[in-house]
Amino acid sequence: MPHSRIRTRWLLGAVLLFHPWTLVDSPALAQEPAPSQASVADLERRVRELEQIIRRMQADRQGGNPGPLPLPAGPQTDFAGTAASQADSKPSTTEPQPGPGRPEDSAAPDRDAGQKPRDGDKDKDGKDKDKAKDGAEKTFTAGWKDDAFALQSADKKFYLRFTGQIQADYRSFLEEADRTDIDTFLIRRARFGLEANMANYYEFRLLPDFGQGKAVVQDAYMNIHYWDAFQFEVGKFKQPLSYEQLIQDRFVPTAERSLIDQLVPARDEGAMIHGQNLFCGKLDWAVAVSNGEINGDADTNEHKDVNSRVAFRPFYHKDCPSLLNYLQVGVSGGLGVEQELVSPLTLRTPLTVPWFQFNPGVRADGLRWRLSPEVSNFYRSIGVCAQYYAEEEKLRPALAGPASRLLIDVPMEGFYVLATYLVTGEERTTYSAPVKPLRPFDPCHPWACPGAWELVGRVSRLELDDRVFATGLARLADPTRFSDAATEMTLGFNWYLNAWVRMQMNWEHAWFDRPVQLGSGAGGLTRDSDALVVRFQIIF
To answer: Which domains does the chain carry?
Structure first.
């Protein structure tokens, strides 16, 4: 017997065995006699019609790609009903997995919305499969958070944040008599940092800097943070002295800090206890013990410095802001015994023009104290701050010889006043946060989406007591080449393209109480200088 007839009879027998009612229900076969009474040709025709029905059902079920057809579920459902029923009611057993920038909680939005879990999400004991998988699959989240790329555990007890900062400058020195400083392109800062929160209460920060052709660890500390009001920090960190220095480098409104900043300790190694937001956000405080260096990485004497700061916001109220809501007054100070070469040896303007230098061999030997009161306020688009600085240090003119027996008290004092105004309507509440433009810059629509524009103005002054130019063995510096006081004015424009990209343009004019030698010969003496800096910054 031909194979085709064998296949046909086998298929017909299978259909009659498993689905005899189809022959009755099918309109093409309803009027036909029973197979036992028909000829072989009629049976083959009926089988072909049945095959066509099956192919149509397969095409409807699988979108035109015929395949094996499941057997019917019951005796009262036709082929079309069987296929549609199975396609629509089949439970989904594959949950979407989180991807980059997508927190784990968003993987099943129907649960977040309060809907009941699907039947397919239950195991054989009736428990939610997601709950069973929490420990195995939902282990961490990854994505862009708090303006940086971060990793976080599902229970939020562990958090790792990657930060970065690049500042590329062009600096031009406009004074013709200045042959000391040259126009240059400069990588001012190039930083890639790690910040971590471990087991909720242990904070860690590592911040190396590769700018200016040097590799320096800026921050490396751990902070134990059980309560806001009382915390403990150890490592290398910013000392609690000077409001201006405590503003993060990435957020300072001017390209560089003021004249007085070069005298404050900045980052040093030590330990600190501190607290913040006491009395409903009105008080911050800190006390630190450190080596006593300025941006130091190692101690040069066995004595330690104590630095402290307290800041008070008397009118702050979270829900009722007013003109004085962000008014802050504070005071910081430091005390320590120094026995090392004087630091800094050279004093400069913010844009690095040198105007004073101690003689080689001048040594600090004795008590040094610092005091710096501060005030700041923010209202809508306007920000202002001012700070006074006073320091006194005991210095010896030389390391050896008769001059080394002299001990001279050298007072220093200075101040700055800074004001900013966001022309495009953004608001500030602090200088230690990014400016987020209301309309981030769009090059296709620059007037409708200009970014944020900010005007900046600052005046600062630093003065040393004129005893640094004493005659004879007590002389600490050369009065024919340097000045004992300098004042600078900075005018600037900041353009925030978005929360991460900023361009700065600062013009600095400085004038000196005495002529300063910036070039060779008599023509190299000048009483003022002008400098310009343009900076491109990107942060995350």
So the answer is: 3-87 (no CATH), 141-539 (2.40.160.10)
